[in-house]
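Q: what sequence does this backbone want?
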C-alpha cells in the first residue's frame, strides 16, 4: 500500500531535511509495514505563485544521492525550457539554489554539451502557439530566427486556391436495411476556395528546404481533418478523409488513390452507419464487406463474416459465419462463440432488428454448450451450429472443481489467498481448435491476495498437463521469487523452475537467478546503473553452487547520448576492453546524427530519430562490419549500404539492400547483394520486380532478374502472370514461387493448413486455441512427419523437450539415456530484439579446452533476410567423453533448431516456407511483406495493409503482426505519466523502467528493444506468466527476455485484442481476452509500477488532460502531461504513429491539476469512451483502485 505524507512550510515542525525557507510538498512512500526498509522520499519546491520550481528525488542516484530537476519560467510565466535531471552529491532533499548551473555543468562534464534542456519557441501572440520545438543536446538546439536548425517547426495557415480537392458524401436512409447508404455528392473535381480550411504545416528535424520532410494537415470548420499531405521526393502523397452530412467518416482515400474515386473498392476505406451513428458496415482495401450487430446497450454482439474456427475458405459460404459475444449483467464478456448463419447486408439488418431493445445477458448456472460445461445457463434458442470458443468466470471460484477451489486457509508462498474476488476475473476456458467434435480446451484460474494481486495462476493445457506459476510479492508488489511447475501431459513428471530477484534501495532490479528442479542455479544477470538510473552494465551468466557465483560469462556494457538514446552495446573498437571478465563476444553501435563518410552524399546525418548507421563486430572473426542507411523524405528505408570500415576497401557493398516503393508503401523493386563477403566479388542475389494490379495493394507477381537462387527464389512460371492469389479477407492463398498451392485460415485469419505443389503429402498444419495461441505445428514431407508442440514456452519435437525460454536466452534440453541435460544458452540482441548471437559455457575435455563458445551467430539485411557465408558455424549439444558439450552437428536431422532470430520471432523454414511467425500474421523477409492484411489497417491508412513496419525496419518493430511500434514514438518519461511506464515495455523511455521513470523529459526514445529493455521488470514479467492466452502467443519474445512476452501480454495486448473488434471482426474473442489479461496480470503490473512511479511522485498543480480526435472527430486517445501541451501535441504529430493523424486539444477545465487529479480525470474520460475504442493501451488507474480514487466505471 502506498502512503503519502504531505509536509508544507506551514508545518515546519515536521520538516526533517528539506529546506525550511521554501514552499514544498514532500512525498513519502513506505516500502514495508515496519519501516525497516528506508522509504522513498521526494520533495517538490514551489514559488510564491504556487508554481513548481524544483523537484528532488531523494536518494534515487545509484549511489544513494538525490537527483534534482530544475524548473523555470519565462517572463510570461510559461515553462518554455524543460531541463534534464542531474545527480547530486548529497542525500538531504534540500533545495539547490544553483540547480540550473549545476545541471549544465553536469552535462558539460558527462557529454561535453551545455544544452541540457528542450525548448519551445512560441509565437508572440495571445495564442502562444508553438513555432518550434527543440530537444536536449547541442545538435538539436533551436534558434527562432534560424530555419536551418534541427528542430520541429510548425506554421499555422489557411488553404490556397486549387490546393485541396473537395469531397463530400451523401447519406440516404435505406429503410429496409436500417442503414444509411453512402455516395459521393462531391467527387474531387472541384477545390475548396481559398481560406476555407485551417492548414498546419509541420517540418521535422531533417527538413532543410522545400516540401520534403513536411506534413500538411487541412481541417474544415468543424475541426475535421479533410486532407493529410506528405511529400515523397517533392511529390504529393495525399490522404483524403470524406464525411457525410452527419459528420461521420465515410471514405478514406490513401495516397495511391491519387485523390480519385476510381479505385474505391480495392484501395479505399468505406464506412456505413445506422440511425444511432453506429458503424454497421465497413470495407477495408482488398477485403470483403464486414458487418457489425449491436445489442440494446450498443455493445458489439455479432461480427462477420469470419471463417470457421477450424479452418475454411471464403469461397465457401458454409465456412463463413458470425462471431458472437454474450455478456453478463455487469457488461463483462461471459462467453463467445462462432455460429454459421448467412452473412450479408440483409441478414445484418435482420439480426439487428431482432436484437434492438432486447436485453440479453448470460446468467451463472449449470449447463453445457457443445457438451462443454460452462457454468452459465445456456441462452434459449442457441443455434445447434454454434461453436463455443471461450468462457470467462468472475467473482468467485465456485465454477472450479472442489479440489482446486481456495479456502480461507489457502496460502501461496506464505501469502493468504483472498476469497473476496468480486469484480475480478477468476478464470477462463479457451477451446483448442482440434475440430468441431472435439471438446478439448485450456482452463486457467488465478488466485489473488487481498490487494487483488495475482499470487498463483494455473493453466491446464489441452493435453492434460499444466503450467502453474506461484509468486512471492513484497509490500510494494515487486516479485521476490516465482516458482513455475510445468507438465506437458497428465502422466509426465513436473519440471520446477525457481526464479529469484534482487533489488536496489531504489527498487531497481539488481540480480536475477534461475534454477531448474534441484540443479545448480544460474545467475542470469547482475545489473549496474549509472547516476541517472540508466543500465550501464549487465553481468550475464555464471553457475551458482552453495550461493557463490563461479564467474561471469559476459559483461555487457551500454552507452547513451544526451537524449538517452542507446549508442553502444560493448565497444566495437575493442572486444578485449574487459580486464576482469572474459573477452566480449559481440559489440554493436548505433549512430543517429553522426556518420563516418557520406558515401557520395547517399547517407546523411539524421536528427528526427532515424538511425543513420549501425556497426557490429564478433569475436568469431574480429571483423568490424557496418550498415549505412538512406531514407526517402517519407522516412522509408531506401538503401542499406554494407561496409567493412577497417578493410583496405571499406565500402564492399557485399550485402547491400535497396528498395523502391509506390505511394502506398508497396515495395516495387528490391536489389540485394550477398553470398560472398568480398569487395572484389560483389554478387547480386536479388533484382526483384514486384507487380500489383492497377488500384490494388495485393502483390500478384515477382520476377527476379538476378538469376540467383539465393535470397528470393523465383520458381514460378505462371502462364497468366498471376503467382499470388488472395481470399475475400485479403489472406494470401497461393505463392507459386514457394510452391504453395492452397492455404486454409481460421476465424482469426491464421493459417491452419498450407499445402505445397497440390500434394497433401507436402503440407504444414497448425493447431491454435480460440485466442490465436499456436499449440502445435505438424510438418508432413512424404513419409516424414515432424510434430512441434508449443506449451507455455516449452517447445517439443516429436514429444521430446527441445528448449524453453529464460530472460537472457533459453535452456537447451539434450536427451541422455533415460534422462537429459539442461544447458543454459545466452543471447546477444540488438536494439530491435534481433538475436545476433547464441553462446554458452562448455566444460573442458581432453580434446577440447572448453569455455565460452558461440553456438550460433546471425546477422540480417534490414528487412530480415539472414546474411550468408560468414560466421556461419552452428553447434549443437552432444555427449562427448561423458560430458554434454557444444559440437558441430553430425547430421541435419538432429534436434530442433532454436529458430528465433529476426525480431526474436520464429523462422518457419520447413518445406521452403521461410516466413517469420509474429503471432497475428506471417512475414516474408525476402519480399518485406506480410501474407495477410493488417488487422488494424484503418490505423495506418496512408500505408499498404501488407507493408512491414511502415517500411522503416531499422527503427520500428512489429510486436505481433498487428502494429508497428518504435522506441521513440511516445511521451518522454515523466513522473506523472504512469500509463507510459506501464504500457511501454517496447519503448525504452518507459521500459528503461523504474530506474528512470521519474526523470522528467529525459527522453530514452532510442534505448533498445532487445538487450536492455527489461532489466528492471524481468521479475514482473515472471509474475505475469499467468496469462496463458498470450504467453504462448508471444513465446519467442518472452523467451528472449523482452517483456514482449509475458509483460506485453498483460499490457499492450489488451488494446490490440480489443482493436480487433473493428479491424478483424472478432470483438467477442478480443474483449474476452482483454478481460483475462486485465484481471489476471494487469493488476500486478500496475501495482508494481505504481510503487515505482510513486518513488518520486510529486503532487503539483501543473498537469493537463488532453484528448486526440481522428479525422471524423471521434476521440481516439486520452493523455496527460505536465509540459506545454502544444509541445506534446507537436511530438505526437511528428511521431509517425497512428497518433500523428490525430487532432489534439486540452479538455475544457482539465488544467492546473495535480498528477492524481489528472489521472482520475483521464481515467474517467477513458471509461466514457471505452478503453477498447481508444489508442490508449491500458487504464491510467487500475480498475481495482477506481473506488479508492472515485473513478466512474
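A:
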Amino acid at each position: 500500500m502506498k502512503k503519502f505524507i504531505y509536509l508544507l512550510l506551514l508545518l515546519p515542525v515536521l520538516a526533517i531535511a528539506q529546506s525550511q525557507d521554501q514552499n514544498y510538498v514532500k512525498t513519502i512512500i513506505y516500502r514495508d509495514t515496519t519501516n525497516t526498509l528506508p522509504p522513498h522520499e521526494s520533495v517538490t519546491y514551489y514559488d510564491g505563485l504556487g508554481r513548481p520550481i524544483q523537484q528532488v528525488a531523494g536518494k534515487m542516484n545509484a549511489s544513494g544521492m538525490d537527483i534534482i530537476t530544475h524548473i523555470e519560467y519565462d517572463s510570461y510565466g510559461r515553462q518554455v525550457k524543460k531541463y534534464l535531471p542531474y545527480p547530486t552529491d548529497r542525500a538531504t532533499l534540500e533545495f539547490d539554489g544553483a540547480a540550473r548551473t549545476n545541471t549544465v555543468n553536469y552535462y558539460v562534464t558527462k557529454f561535453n554539451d551545455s544544452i541540457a534542456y528542450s525548448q519551445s519557441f512560441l509565437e508572440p501572440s495571445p495564442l502562444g502557439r508553438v513555432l518550434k520545438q527543440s530537444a536536449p543536446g547541442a545538435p538539436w538546439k533551436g534558434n527562432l530566427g534560424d530555419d536551418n536548425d534541427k528542430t520541429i517547426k510548425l506554421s499555422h495557415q489557411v488553404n490556397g486556391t486549387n490546393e485541396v480537392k473537395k469531397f463530400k458524401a451523401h447519406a440516404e436512409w435505406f429503410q429496409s436495411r436500417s442503414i444509411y447508404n453512402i455516395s459521393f455528392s462531391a467527387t474531387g473535381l472541384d477545390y475548396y476556395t481559398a481560406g476555407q480550411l485551417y492548414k498546419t504545416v509541420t517540418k521535422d528535424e531533417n527538413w532543410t528546404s522545400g516540401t520534403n520532410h513536411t506534413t500538411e494537415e487541412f481541417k474544415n470548420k468543424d475541426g475535421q481533418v479533410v486532407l493529410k499531405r506528405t511529400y515523397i521526393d517533392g511529390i504529393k502523397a495525399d490522404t483524403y478523409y470524406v464525411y457525410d452530412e452527419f459528420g461521420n467518416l465515410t471514405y478514406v482515400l490513401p495516397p495511391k488513390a491519387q485523390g480519385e474515386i476510381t479505385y474505391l473498392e480495392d484501395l479505399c476505406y468505406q464506412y456505413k452507419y445506422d440511425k444511432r451513428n453506429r458503424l454497421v458496415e465497413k470495407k477495408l482495401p482488398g477485403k470483403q464487406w464486414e458487418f457489425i450487430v449491436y445489442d440494446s446497450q450498443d455493445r458489439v454482439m455479432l461480427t462477420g463474416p469470419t471463417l470457421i474456427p477450424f479452418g475454411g475458405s471464403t469461397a465457401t459460404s458454409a465456412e463463413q459465419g458470425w462471431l458472437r459475444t454474450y455478456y453478463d449483467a455487469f457488461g463483462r464478456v461471459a462467453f463467445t462463440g462462432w455460429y454459421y448463419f448467412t452473412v450479408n447486408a440483409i441478414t445484418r439488418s435482420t439480426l439487428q432488428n431482432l436484437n434492438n431493445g432486447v436485453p440479453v445477458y448470460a446468467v451463472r448456472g449449470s449447463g453445457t454448450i457443445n457438451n462443454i460445461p460452462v457454468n452459465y445457463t445456456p441462452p434459449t434458442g442457441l443455434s445447434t451450429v454454434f461453436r463455443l470458443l471461450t468462457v470467462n468466470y468472475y467473482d468467485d471460484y465456485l465454477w472450479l472443481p472442489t479440489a482446486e477451489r481456495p479456502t480461507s486457509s489457502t496460502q501461496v508462498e506464505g501469502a493468504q489467498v483472498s476469497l473476496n474476488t468480486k469484480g475480478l476475473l477468476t478464470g477462463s476456458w479457451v477451446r483448442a481448435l482440434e475440430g468441431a467434435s472435439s471438446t478439448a480446451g485450456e482452463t486457467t484460474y488465478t488466485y489473488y491476495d487481498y490487494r487483488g494481486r495475482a499470487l498463483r495462476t494455473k493453466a491446464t493445457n489441452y493435453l492434460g498437463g499444466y503450467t502453474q506459476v506461484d509468486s512471492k510479492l513484497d509490500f510494494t508488489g515487486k516479485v521476490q521469487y516465482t516458482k513455475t511447475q510445468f507438465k506437458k501431459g497428465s502422466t509426465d513428471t513436473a519440471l520446477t523452475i525457481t526464479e529469484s530477484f534482487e533489488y536496489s534501495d531504489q527498487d531497481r532490479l539488481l540480480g536475477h537467478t534461475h534454477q531448474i528442479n534441484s540443479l545448480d542455479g544460474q545467475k542470469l544477470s547482475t545489473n549496474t546503473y549509472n547516476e541517472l538510473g540508466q543500465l550501464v552494465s549487465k553481468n550475464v551468466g555464471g553457475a551458482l553452487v552453495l550461493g557463490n557465483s563461479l564467474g561471469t560469462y559476459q559483461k555487457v556494457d551500454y552507452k547513451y547520448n544526451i537524449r538517452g538514446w542507446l549508442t553502444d552495446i560493448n565497444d566495437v573498437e575493442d572486444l578485449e576492453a574487459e580486464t576482469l571478465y572474459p573477452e566480449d563476444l559481440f559489440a554493436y553501435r548505433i549512430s543517429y546524427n553522426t556518420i563516418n563518410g557520406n558515401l557520395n552524399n547517399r547517407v546523411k546525418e539524421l536528427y528526427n530519430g532515424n538511425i543513420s548507421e549501425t556497426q557490429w563486430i564478433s569475436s568469431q572473426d574480429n571483423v568490424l562490419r557496418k550498415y549505412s542507411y538512406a531514407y526517402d523524405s517519407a522516412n522509408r528505408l531506401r538503401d542499406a549500404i554494407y561496409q567493412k570500415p577497417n578493410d583496405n576497401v571499406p565500402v564492399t557493398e557485399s550485402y547491400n539492400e535497396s528498395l523502391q516503393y509506390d505511394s502506398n508503401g508497396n515495395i516495387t523493386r528490391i536489389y540485394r547483394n550477398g553470398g560472398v563477403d568480398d569487395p572484389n566479388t560483389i554478387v547480386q542475389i536479388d533484382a526483384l520486380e514486384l507487380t500489383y494490379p492497377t488500384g490494388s495493394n495485393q502483390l500478384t507477381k515477382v520476377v527476379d532478374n538476378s538469376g540467383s537462387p539465393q535470397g528470393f527464389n523465383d520458381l514460378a512460371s505462371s502462364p497468366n502472370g498471376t503467382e499470388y492469389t488472395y481470399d475475400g479477407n485479403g489472406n494470401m492463398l497461393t505463392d507459386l514461387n514457394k510452391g504453395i498451392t492452397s492455404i486454409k485460415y481460421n476465424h482469426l485469419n491464421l493459417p491452419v493448413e498450407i499445402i505445397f505443389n497440390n500434394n497433401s503429402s507436402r503440407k504444414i498444419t497448425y493447431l491454435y486455441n480460440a485466442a490465436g495461441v499456436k499449440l502445435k505445428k505438424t510438418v508432413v514431407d512424404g513419409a516424414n512427419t515432424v510434430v512441434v508442440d508449443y506449451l507455455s514456452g516449452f517447445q517439443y519435437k516429436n514429444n521430446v523437450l527441445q528448449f524453453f525460454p529464460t530472460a537472457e536466452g533459453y535452456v537447451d534440453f539434450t536427451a541422455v539415456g533415460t534422462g537429459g541435460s539442461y544447458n543454459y544458452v545466452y543471447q546477444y540482441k540488438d536494439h530491435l530484439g534481433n538475436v545476433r548471437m547464441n553462446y554458452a559455457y562448455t566444460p573442458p575435455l581432453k580434446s577440447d579446452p572448453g569455455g565460452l563458445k558461440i553456438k550460433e551467430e546471425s546477422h540480417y539485411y534490414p528487412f530480415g533476410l539472414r546474411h550468408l557465408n560468414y560466421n556461419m558455424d552452428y553447434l549443437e549439444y552432444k555427449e562427448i567423453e561423458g560430458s554434454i558439450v557444444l559440437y558441430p552437428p553430425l547430421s541435419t536431422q538432429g534436434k530442433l533448431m532454436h529458430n528465433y532470430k529476426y525480431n526474436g520471432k520464429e523462422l518457419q523454414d520447413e518445406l521452403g516456407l521461410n516466413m517469420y511467425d509474429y503471432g497475428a500474421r506471417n512475414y516474408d523477409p525476402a519480399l518485406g511483406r506480410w501474407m495477410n492484411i493488417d488487422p488494424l489497417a484503418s490505423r495506418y491508412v496512408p500505408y499498404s495493409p501488407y507493408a512491414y513496419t511502415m517500411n522503416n525496419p531499422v527503427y520500428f518493430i512489429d510486436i505481433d503482426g498487428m502494429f508497428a511500434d518504435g522506441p521513440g514514438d511516445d511521451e518522454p518519461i515523466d513522473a506523472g505519466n504512469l500509463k507510459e511506464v506501464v504500457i511501454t515495455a517496447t519503448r525504452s523511455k518507459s521500459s528503461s523502467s523504474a530506474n528512470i521513470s521519474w526523470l522528467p523529459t529525459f527522453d530514452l526514445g532510442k534505448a533498445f528493444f532487445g538487450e536492455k529493455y527489461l532489466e528492471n521488470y524481468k521479475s514482473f514479467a515472471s509474475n505475469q506468466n499467468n496469462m496463458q492466452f498470450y504467453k504462448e502467443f508471444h513465446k519467442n519474445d518472452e523467451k528472449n527476455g523482452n517483456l514482449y512476452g509475458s509483460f506485453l501480454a498483460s499490457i499492450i495486448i489488451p488494446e490490440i485484442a480489443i482493436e480487433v473488434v473493428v479491424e478483424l471482426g472478432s470483438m467477442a474473442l478480443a474483449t474476452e481476452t482483454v478481460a483475462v489479461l486485465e484481471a489476471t496480470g494487469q493488476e500486478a503490473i500496475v501495482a508494481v509500477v505504481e510503487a515505482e512511479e510513486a518513488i518520486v511522485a510529486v503532487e503539483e498543480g501543473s498537469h493537463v488532460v488532453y484528448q486526440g480526435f481522428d479525422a471524423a472527430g471521434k476521440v481516439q486517445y486520452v493523455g496527460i502531461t505536465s509540459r506545454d501541451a502544444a509541445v506534446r501535441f507537436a511530438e505526437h504529430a511528428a511521431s509517425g504513429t497512428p497518433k500523428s493523424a490525430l487532432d489534439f486539444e486540452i479538455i475544457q477545465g482539465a488544467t492546473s491539476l495535480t498528477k492524481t487529479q489528472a489521472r482520475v480525470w483521464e481515467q474517467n474520460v477513458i471509461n466514457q469512451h471505452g478503453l477498447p475504442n481508444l489508442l490508449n493501451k491500458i487504464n491510467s488507474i487500475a480498475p481495482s483502485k477506481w473506488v479508492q480514487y472515485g473513478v466512474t466505471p
